[in-house]
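dumping this here so i dont lose it
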């Protein structure tokens, strides 16, 4: 048998055949304001059918009527009121007098309903509940608006997800960066809304490393750190947090996920870690230079002397040559390490960076131009000189170009682009090689990290050290299969004459 419901019967008691009530009020006691509130306040339409005040009778002549009913017809008694207003189909008696209540029950026709002062006690309770609800809803709306405003001002991306990973709510930062309205994202999988700071996609599916999955299983707060490469090929670091949300019964109903961009903080931490490594390397290098280099020179000298001996046969000469080559390689490694940790006194002068770029391009073209490599220099007009040492910057560019050439074994184009940006001279070395993955980008500036079989891992760290000691900075942007861009941001040199004139003017 079908369950009994009002929907099955097709009946809604007061929204069915019963139309609006035309009310006749009998009396003007303390209940008048309550009844007027019930009749005129739209809040009560949620609980009661529509009511219209037609007339008032039996008013207390000593009391002034409220403004809401000053234009309402007022009659001496209810008999006069009913005769003048046949449309009245509901009489509400609020005098509290039994004689009037009894008289109404005897004289009212069947077409007119009656609520006397005893019945309207229930309306009073309903009125109080509606008032409390109104106050509660107003307070709730205020708190909701306040909380939403606070959440919208948070720079981190915040998602409220159901247990399937679909968006139930999110803060303004997310939908503005996604370029759509908040409403369009509700109900969508979270990965459709998540974006990096430049607007590129954070992920293209519900990422298995997202702590959302762990929280779903553990019911506890979880977090993880992930890396992403943005649309420009720059490596970004994010800390992801997942927080369980429980309902009144203690069951997990939602999960809040937050994305926090920690790129700058991570770079600062890595910089400090590198400085600590440099200090250790400096101590080791000093020890190596003292303890290893002198015996190494002796070994190399004896090996060279043996190599010149006519008594060696071919096989013995090959073995001695290996000793000579290896001692040279070890000496070069020691030299690189000492150069890497040798303290610098800052930029030693000014450098015409465009001239340096052209010199290096011409130098590299001699060795690699016939092998299918085209090195082009593009420079903006009137670029200033930069702070630094010309030979050091030239060596930096040579090392970067060698890396680019090794990344393009079949040849290709390499561009050196120099321009002004934000008060700095920006030099970008752009290749179209095999590119770098996230792990390689993350470790590229770590000393002794190398993807080459014979590399010592000091090339990029040394470049970074030289540029930073001149007041600049180095960044890498790369994507697998799409090439790499090494960007040097260099400090422009102040014109000496202008600086002197400025100093004199200040004096």
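and the seq i came up w/
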């Amino acid at each position: 048998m079908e369950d009994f419901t009002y929907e099955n019967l097709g009946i809604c008691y007061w929204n069915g055949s019963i139309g609006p009530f035309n009310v006749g009020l009998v009396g003007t006691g303390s209940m008048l304001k309550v009844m007027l509130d019930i009749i005129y306040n739209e809040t009560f339409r949620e609980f009661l059918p529509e009511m219209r005040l037609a007339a008032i009778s039996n008013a207390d002549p000593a009391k002034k009527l409220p403004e809401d009913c000053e234009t309402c017809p007022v009659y001496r008694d209810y008999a006069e009121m009913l005769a003048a207003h046949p449309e009245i189909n509901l009489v509400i008696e609020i005098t509290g007098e039994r004689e009037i209540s009894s008289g109404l029950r005897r004289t009212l026709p069947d077409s007119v309903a009656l609520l006397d002062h005893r019945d309207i006690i229930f309306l009073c309770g309903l009125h109080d509940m509606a008032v409390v609800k109104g106050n509660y809803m107003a307070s709730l709306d205020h708190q909701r608006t306040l909380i939403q405003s606070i959440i919208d001002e948070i720079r981190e991306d915040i998602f409220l997800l159901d247990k399937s990973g679909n968006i139930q709510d999110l803060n303004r930062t997310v939908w503005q960066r996604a370029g759509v309205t908040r409403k369009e994202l509700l109900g969508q999988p979270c990965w459709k809304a998540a974006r990096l700071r430049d607007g590129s996609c954070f992920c293209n599916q519900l990422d298995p490393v997202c702590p959302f999955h762990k929280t779903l299983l553990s019911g506890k707060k979880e977090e993880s750190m992930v890396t992403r490469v943005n649309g420009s090929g720059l490596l970004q670091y994010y800390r992801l947090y997942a927080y369980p949300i429980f309902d009144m019964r203690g069951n997990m109903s939602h999960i809040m996920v937050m994305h926090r961009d920690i790129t700058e903080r991570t770079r600062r931490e890595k910089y400090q870690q590198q400085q600590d490594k440099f200090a250790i390397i400096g101590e080791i290098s000093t020890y190596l230079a003292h303890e290893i280099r002198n015996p190494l020179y002796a070994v190399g000298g004896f090996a060279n002397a043996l190599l010149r001996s006519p008594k060696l046969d071919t096989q013995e000469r090959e073995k001695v040559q290996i000793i000579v080559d290896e001692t040279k390689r070890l000496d070069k490694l020691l030299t690189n390490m000492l150069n890497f940790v040798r303290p610098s006194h800052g930029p030693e002068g000014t450098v015409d960076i465009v001239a340096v770029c052209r010199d290096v391009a011409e130098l590299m073209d001699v060795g690699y131009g016939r092998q299918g490599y085209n090195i082009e220099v593009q420079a903006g007009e009137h670029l200033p000189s930069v702070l630094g040492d010309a030979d050091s910057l030239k060596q930096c560019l040579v090392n970067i170009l060698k890396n680019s050439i090794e990344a393009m074994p079949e040849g290709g184009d390499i561009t050196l682009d120099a321009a002004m940006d934000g008060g700095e001279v920006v030099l970008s070395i752009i290749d179209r090689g095999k590119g770098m993955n996230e792990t390689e980008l993350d470790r590229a500036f770590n000393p002794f990290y190398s993807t080459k079989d014979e590399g010592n891992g000091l090339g990029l760290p040394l470049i970074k050290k030289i540029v930073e000691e001149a007041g600049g900075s180095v960044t890498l942007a790369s994507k697998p299969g799409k090439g790499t861009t090494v960007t040097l941001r260099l400090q422009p040199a102040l014109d000496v004459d202008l600086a002197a004139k400025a100093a004199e003017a200040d004096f």
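The radius of gyration is 42 Å.
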